[in-house]
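Hi L.,

As promised, Cohesin subunit SA:
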Amino acid sequence: MLADVFGLCFLNTPLFGSPYVWQGGKKGKKAAGEKGKGGKGAGRINGHHQENGMENMMLFEVVKVGRSAMQSVVDEWIESYKHDRDVALLDLINFFIQCSGCKGVVSGEMFRNMQNSEIIRRMTEEFDEDSGDYPLTIAGPQWKKFKTSFCEFISVLVRQCQYSIIYDEYMMDTVISLLTGLSDSQVRAFRHTSTLAAMKLMTALVNVALNLSINMDNTQRQYDAERNKMVAKRANDRLELLLQKRKELQENQDEIENMMNAIFKGVFVHRYRDSIAEIRAICIEEIGVWMKLYSDAFLNDSYLKYVGWTMHDKQGEVRLKCLTALQGLYHNRELNARLELFTSRFKDRIVSMTLDKEYDVAVQAIKLLTLVLNSTDEVLTPEDCESVYHLVYSAHRPVAIAAGEFLYKKLFSQREPEEEGAPKRRGRQSPNANLIKTTVFFFLESELHEHAAYLVDSLWECGAELLKDWECMISLLLDDPMPGEEALTDRQETALIEIMLCTVRQAAECHPPVGRGTGKRVMTAKEKKTQLDDRTRITELFAVALPPLLAKYAVDAEKVTNLLQLPQYFDLEIYTTGRLEKHLEALLRQIKEIVEKHTDTEVLESCSKTYHALCNEEFTIFNRVDIARSQLLDELVDKFSRLLEDFLQEGEDADEDDAYQVLSTLKRITAFHNAHDLSGWDLFTSNFKLLNTGIENGDMPEQIVIHSLQCTHYVILWQLAKLSEGSSRKDDMVNLRKQMRAFCMMCQRYLTNVNTAVKEQAFTILCDLLLIFSHQMVSGGREHLEPLVYSPEDSLQSELLSFILNHVFIDQDDDTNSTDGQQDDEAVKIEALHKRRNLLAAYCKLIIYCVVEMRTGADIFKQYMRYYNDYGDIIKETMSKTRQIDKIQCAKTLILSLQQLFNEMLSELGHGFDRSSSAFCGIKELARRFSLTFGLDQVKTRDAIAMLHKDGIEFAFKEPSPQGEGGPPLNLAFLDILSEFSSKLMRQDKRTVHMYLERFMTFQMALQREDCWLPLISYRNSLQAGGDDDTMSVMSGYSSRGSSVRSKKAKPPAVTAGTSAVKRKLPEGLCSESSSGEVWQQSIQTPVMMPSPHLTSTAMRDPKRGRDDSFMGVYTPQHHQTPMDYNRRGTGLMEEDEEPIVEDVMMSSEGRMDDLNEGMDFDTMDIDLPPSKNRRERSELKPDYFDPASIMDESVLGVSMF
């Protein structure tokens, strides 16, 4: 018996009734008339057909090639089976063996004399697992269609044999026995391939059973119809024939059910929980097909529970198959009654899967809930629906679109029926009016008012017709409500205008909002035509409706700002072709009135952008719009000149009303100057006079100064734009050069202003100007602009750096902008941090583009760990860019930052500090982080590392001992910090650095062993540890972080040809910066330790801005009171700028910050080696019994399902 051979424990109860009687353990008898026909495979060699001396293609080769006429292949095999079924079955057995990737062949003798279990064991021993791949997993075009052909072969085989051969109690018994045994194999290839074959065989049998069931029903109806006839008209012969046919069909049905029973219990029940996800996915996919095809037999709780259990699988691929299988069932409303119990039991799990970490699974879960919603509204509770609603704001577009379809089905599927023959209702009387209101209500209730574009994009594919009903939206805003209809509130009108703008933008641009797009998609011809039609309709509707809308909401800044963005999406040609000039005049009048009424920056910028969109020289309306714009600007500039003159004359006597008038006019001019060239009006003179007066008197209102600085900035940029085009005179360049330099000096003077907002504005503009007018501006064929190049003086560089130190590297509580008790407001803190990040980024760009000296970056780099959470990404990118520009200078800057921190620590703790203190350990940890940024390529960073050690050694011996002659130098402990970079030195460079170190040492120093000399001992050991090999140490700095001496065990040498070629050369990086050609050549005598001033920051920092004394310029966590343990390794600060060592792709970006202070050890890298390929070891493997905890959540284990 098969159960005895394979040790299978079948369930006691049969699948479809009577248990299946197996004949697989013995070879069945041949059918009558088939004896003697090629008993030993006449005309065959090794079981393969011979024809004219040429061997035909084997079944495996035919399927691999992917012949399209699979039915002819099967027909040939059937003819072979009818000729000699043992030989044909041997071919089929070898086909399954070869499809598993096994090179072994089952011989005829093995087939006749060995049990299936013995055959499988023999094939397992001969299995070549060296590659680990097999046909179902091999990549490449040759195997791309293999799986499809393999499955098609099995399906066609059963279909062609369904009327005779499958009932001979031999072929199917042998195949099922073989596949059941292979599916229980320890070899993955056997298990995977046989499970797929068995499941496809089961699917084919389900189709056969379904056809038999249909034939039985038809036969029964014919029998009943014939029997109900009158006795005289009844044909007894026909009754007997129908009765006999029904009996045969029933016997066949019982036989097929026994086969399916054996496959289900022998393969599916064991393999649906296999340790391999692909195998589990195959089982779930196929059971979904069975339940859909033959719902009468399979669609019940006994089978649905397997899908329900597997929805808790830990692999997204398997969960996805569960959902797609269920979608096929819920799609058929006739099956909903049979799914009620399953739905009630597993509904919560399906709802939770909408938040699955695998986006594909989440999408299918939402689609499944949409099908459930279509079947009945009572199943899903309001809480279930709300959990899906908020996903319309998801950044992942497929998830959002699926959620949008769910929302549309739930809220918008109920439309008011229109009477037949009645005229179509439009405007607020249209059927869409209530649906649009519902959209507005949902948007407001979701409390995500800044994401209307996301909501529109989510609903676009399923509700574009509704969202494009702009006529109804305009009517809801302009028309009076009908009797008994409730009017929209002010808040609802604001939301409707925002949604309307988003729909117009989506229709005109045809791409999703920022954050959802995966790149530009090529539009089809149909989509392009739809886009043009929509733009035409938008223009025709809003060209007429926009002026009255602006007139109605002219005083509401938020509504006006959104409405003024609509002309950007107009087809301006329609103003002329559609004879809409009068509406254009009305629009220009409304914009002018809005400019005169409002001083809000956003409103004014929207007006400026609208003028810019309308002033297009390609269209005939340009002259009309240009005249209106020029008239408006003339009035504004004249008014500003008049008001400014009076304001400056009054001086201290000017009242607030005068200041307000000047400010409001200046705001309007600045907003327009951003998008329009106002060079025709001399705005530089008036603004410069205003700024100069503010410097002299010191009482100029803050906002006036800020907008005056911005306006002057625009004046200079517009003049530069003209010069870049080459259309200006030489006098213009001289004038621009004078104005630019004068304005830079003015901004520099405002850096010391008492008002923080003014200083930040001056700093930002100054950084922009220095970057624009740097040496970079002459590149790209613009050499004629060379007279405009401006390089900042040392005093200006110092002031810029001081500003950064005093206004960026501060505590949150020190931010002077967070006043009036707003420190607790999280939004205010985030905004303040965003502003400080912009300031730091502006200065770092000056370093990257060599506008300021690179050494000024030392004051930035030393803050890396201390402010990692706030500015770590900016500082890291700056270090990376500076290294690309000049590796040596970047290394000198890094060591300079460490020296500054070391001197700051000495000034606070004194020369007798404890090297285990948090301050010293923090500097050492920072050095380790710096070391990691150099990557693994020692040849590429050789010069830079050598120069870094040179500067570090000189600094360590620069200051004499405070204890007098015989004591350690003041900065000797810096060598302990410098040792963090020793692993980055090449072997020959370590010798050279050690020789250079010995020139600074006296004979007595080499003999010292006291604790105060441990940094020197430690550093010397770090240079000698790798002296005999050239291996890169990726474990530097991961051992003990105490003050004890570290010893490292080196690997065997791995010297490449390139390395050996330069083995005896001194590195160029060891040369001094002069061109004398000396390499580490100092005086032969030991340098005299002359006193020299302490190295401090390159810019004096305001002491009031310093942190608490205990920090000492090193990093400590900003949100925890406990000090940081530097012996622990935080993954968040691992730096591999050039060549990453390890990156955990499963770690989310949010989790990396959380792991900043988490103690994790990255000393070694674990390598996941493939399993052993040794046959002896494989034979000793234990059976791969299922461990539920390995693939399923704990929530599904031990829970009663039904």
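The two ends are 34 Å apart (CA to CA).

Thanks again for sending the construct details.

K.
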